[in-house]
Amino acid sequence: MLDLDERRAIEATLRRFAAKIDQTLFGGEGPDGDLDRIPQLLAEAQAMAVIADPAPDAPGYELGVWGRGCQAEGPMRSLLSLSFLGEACAGFATAVHAQGLACLALDGQVHFPPATPLAAVFTPNYGVPLSARPRSVGSGLRLLDDGDALQLDGASHFLLAAGAPQRLACFAQKAGTNGAEPEWGVLVADVETAGIELSEVTGRTGLRAARQYHVRCNRVIIPPDRVLHVGQAARRVLGQVMACDWLGQAAIALGVARRSLCDSRAYSAQRYQGGQIIEEHASIQLLQGMAEYDIALLDAILYRHADEPLSSQDTSTLLRWALQARLAVVEHAQRAVTNCLQTLGGYGYMEDYGFEKRLRDVSTLKSLHGAPDQLKLYLNELARGK
Amino acid sequence: MMHSNLAYSIQRLKPLGRWLYDHTPETLWERDTRTLPRYLQGRRRAYRRFARQHIVPLAFQADQSPEDYDPRPLLAEAGRLGFQSELLPWPLGRMPYRALLGGKIFCVALKAEEFCAACGGIGLSLLAHDLGMGPLLLSGHLPTLLRWHWPINRANLRGDVKLVAYAITEPGAGSDVEESEGAAQARYVTTARKAPGGYILNGQKVFISGGRHCDYVTVFAVLEREDGKKPQVDTDFTCFIAERERPGFRVGHRERKLGQRACDASQLFFDDVFVPQQNLVGTERSGWALNRNVLNYSRGPVGAIALGIARGAVEAATQFARETRLDNKPLIAYQEVQLGLAEMWLDTMAMRGMVWQSVRHSLPVQGVASAAKAFCGDIGFRVANRAMELMGDHGYLATWRAEKAMRDVRLNQIYEGANQINYLAFVESFWESDMARSGAEEAATSW
Prior knowledge:
The structure holds two protein chains of two kinds.
Chain A: H1 4-25, H2 38-47, H3 60-63, H4 69-73, H5 76-88, H6 90-106, E1 118-121, E2 141-145, E3 150-161, E4 167-174, E5 183-190, E6 196-200, E7 211-222, E8 227-230, H7 232-268, E9 272-273, E10 276-277, H8 282-302, H9 315-343, H10 346-349, H11 355-367, H12 372-383
Parallel strand pairs in A: 1-4, 2-4
Antiparallel strand pairs in A: 2-3, 3-7, 4-5, 5-8, 6-7, 9-10
Helix pairs in contact in A: 1-5, 5-6, 5-7, 6-7, 7-8, 7-9, 7-11, 8-9, 9-11, 9-12
Chain B: H1 4-11, H2 15-20, H3 28-34, H4 38-64, H5 72-80, H6 106-118, H7 120-138, H8 142-158, E1 164-167, H9 180-183, E2 191-195, E3 198-209, E4 216-223, H10 233-236, E5 237-243, E6 249-254, E7 265-276, E8 280-281, H11 287-323, E9 325-326, E10 329-330, H12 335-360, H13 366-390, H14 402-410, H15 419-429, H16 431-435, H17 439-445
Parallel strand pairs in B: 1-4, 2-4
Antiparallel strand pairs in B: 2-3, 3-7, 4-5, 5-8, 6-7, 9-10
Helix pairs in contact in B: 4-6, 5-8, 6-7, 6-11, 7-11, 11-12, 11-13, 11-14, 12-13, 13-14, 13-15
């Protein structure tokens, strides 16, 4: 658990870094900033131990977003970091988040050289991997056992990465024997392995500083030492990865909403309309008041269990909390952003003030890795103990 | 999908009973169309045909690379078909005669829905001209009509594109000039001063839809007062029409915006632009009423723009649910997906009801038009978001058009007066008649 001084130190460091991101990315034109500078910022994040690292001697291994430290310390550090990064650029925060999820999926079982770009592969084309409704859709990947070797087959979609990934931490289902339920496995694959095809997802509304891919595996041979967990252990890790994915998205959205309100207040304190500074208009006050409420609510949901060690949290409870936070993004974070945009009128709709990017980013977070109705069904499924 | 036993049961009804039971598998669009008078049914079908043939193929590219999109060929085709001259009947334009007796802008609202269901940005680029022409008609000044409105219509009917943009918003004044409380205090900087034979215009306009390609601008300015006092919007606003080639007029940069990108939003500059007396639209110092009435006429169709964009999103979501499979069944077979789709279809039905009701009034009513505009802007944004959500990760990809709909329709909560201004316009409109009535008045008219 982080004490108050540690939280303040994280906030101070991250706010300085966020200001640098602002300066580096958004100095010129273009709605998403200068994306060519993302690798440079990622390198700085690595040096500051903000981004998780698969090398045990790298500082990010423990302290980075979703690094090993969150197992004992709880997810507070990661959530705070993502929310501050989200204030500057939700896409960059998503890139950091993506590397962290992949490190989380490795579960300390395998190590790679410092700064190896990774991606966690666990999302199907549609639906929720662990949900039993209508029948488990899994991750889209299957683990085939033909007696001699394990093979990875199928397609998984919308995986996130900080840069072009070199290694994939894949979750796949293996058919159960004698009619038993399929069991989960988690394994590592090199993207250069024969049979693996990565295709980059283009034409996204937002979060463009992060990379996104579909992966297709055509009977990829997996050596036994690349299988990290099978059965309940793999299922537990997948539960953690899914939960941290949704929590991270909510944290980033919180940052976006917070920054929107801050910028809206600054604008409304300067702009006149109808002979009055606009912050004096009731219509502006209502919009900002609603955003304040939305942010407070999201904040309360997000940090509710953030001090509890991840390793001690029951998977079902952890997933329920994460789903609640992620669903709050849909309702509260997007409403806060759109209400703040409204306070700027026509200027909010143009690229210059940054609100149009924030709306695109938060709208993408809203549908990322799960349609909200599918998440609600899964939340209810968990609550009923199914 | 009708249950087979229900079909059997209907067949067992007496002929009159069967006749009274509507069980045809006709689309909602056709059913709605058939509720319209015949002359509007034909128009609605023509607009949809045009949208499918000419707008849909351009929509994606025009949104992705708006700078490379040249709207003129499409505007020429729309002009030839009479879609750019529907504010007056023959021989001055192509408004159906019967519209003179009923809702005069019903056609425009139908057109807005159909065009914007195909693409909000291209739809706006076609509709912005009607807005620019509004003051020429609503000034009620016959010489203005004959000198400007009629020739522009004739040119467009020949396929010779002549566009008029509507310029009111300024860097320091937007929605406030559109409401009563703010207008007197608005910091309006575009001025007109009398000069021999005409007027000199100075100032700057922003966010002008279609400003880049326009041939004329109907521009509002405060006319300097003879008593030397500071001119105000509510007492000195005056409308002029300025030709593009007038010395001192120039188009500034094109804004980079979230949506409706196919239609430019440009800056216009007026540096000592001389316009002759004949370019005065209507009369001096009548501009505030003229602007307000243009908005009364345009806000219903702006509600229809939101409706069209939302309908486009719903159609995309429905197609997605038909074509995407989950566990070997199409998504549309799942109850939660059906509920989501129904919610969106119902929302668009409510929007259509609101828009059609608002444009049925013989003369547009401020409160009703503002209500339609604000309601449809808000609900349209909800619908487009719901469509994105239903698609999950596919929702944020350009392929499925829902994200474009979300970006496009967000503008409807802002332009033509921010929605908050429209809510207040509704209150103002019905203040005396409905809202601020005394207890005695209420009692006298109550049961």
